[in-house]
Amino acid sequence: MISVIHTLVDEQVGEDDDFLIPAGGRRMEMDWERVTAAFQTAVERLGWDADLEIRPERQFVMVRVAKGCWSRVSNTTSDFYAMVEDVIGTEQFMSIWIDFASREQCSTRPIS
Amino acid sequence: MFDPTDFLTVARDLGASDRAATTPARLRTAFGRAYYALFLLVREEISSRHHIHYRRLPHGAVYTHLQSPRAGQEVRELGRELQRMYTLRQNADYELAPNLVVKGQLEDVELLGSLINRTRKLAAILHQLDFSPVVPLFRP
Questions:
Q1: What is the mean pLDDT of residues A15-29?
Q2: Chain B: nearest CA to A79, how far in angstroms?
Q3: Does B133 touch chain A (CB under 8 A)?
Q4: Dihedral (C-alpha) A9, B101, B59, B61: value to the nearest 10 degrees?
Q5: Handedness of CA B124, B127, B131, B135 (dihedral sign)
Q6: Cross-chain residue pair A109–B100, CB shorter than 8 Å
Q7: Residues of A with CB below 8 A from B79's CB?
């Protein structure tokens, strides 16, 4: 099952807030419904058992992988990246920090 | 000559040990070794193929230039992975009280195993990658 968690609207990120962006990207506006759909589609097509935690204000996507699915994830990460990039565009893709963690250790605390 | 992939073997051994009392320290060390395996392999590949001195290939420059728009998709992906692993390594080495998300990652044996597998895959294709578009970025 895939769950998509959007950051609460009232969780504001100020101009001076520090957060991770890939070196090839920048802080930018993007269509997060489209981004979310692209990540979700890629997860489904690759058969990953994983949840997506999406935080638009931080341009951050955490992929939370179920126990037993890590091998598939590490074997198809390149396909995953390519599928998302093809849909949302290179500049947008390079501006999103994508990270991975086990689903069982899921935290509800906001990224700081 | 030392083979950096040996660091991956060490990282896997550290992750597989069942001495619970030292688990956090071992896992933190393992994340660091996994990063250094990939970084050293990439640095050696660029240095030897394009005759660029190691001094011009520091951590930040490598993961940044590999993500340049002039780089091909596979090279940019390599740069992204290097930066992600570098960030994990920084947290592993310096953050004594990381936030819960980072703490979870640094204690995540499955994540470590995945990174080791991913690093082995990236290492296997390094010789096929075209670094030439970003090589000028490393020159004075």
A1: 83
A2: 11
A3: no
A4: -10
A5: positive
A6: yes
A7: 22-24
Residue A110 lies in a domain: no
The CB density around residue B110, as the number of other CB atoms within 10 Å, is: 23
Residue type, B32: G
In a domain, A67, yes or no: yes
Q: Is the pLDDT of residue B6 over 90?
A: yes
Task: Tell me, yes or no, if B21 comes closer than 8 A to chain A by beta carbon.
Answer: no
Domains contained in chain A, number: 1
Whole-prediction pTM? 0.90
Domain that holds residue A82: 1-6+37-104
Minimal CA separation from B26 to chain A, in Å: 18
Longest dimension (CA), chain A: 40
Is the Cβ of B90 closer than 8 Å to some Cβ of chain A? no
In one-letter notation, the amino acid at residue B81 is: E
What proportion of chain B, given as a percentage, has pLDDT over 90? Answer: 91
Residue at A56 is within a domain = yes
Residue A112: pLDDT band with limits 50, 70, 90: very low
Q: What number is the ipTM of this complex?
A: 0.90
Report CB contact under 8 Å: A94, B87: no
Report the residue from B100, B108, B118 with minimal CB separation from A77.
B118
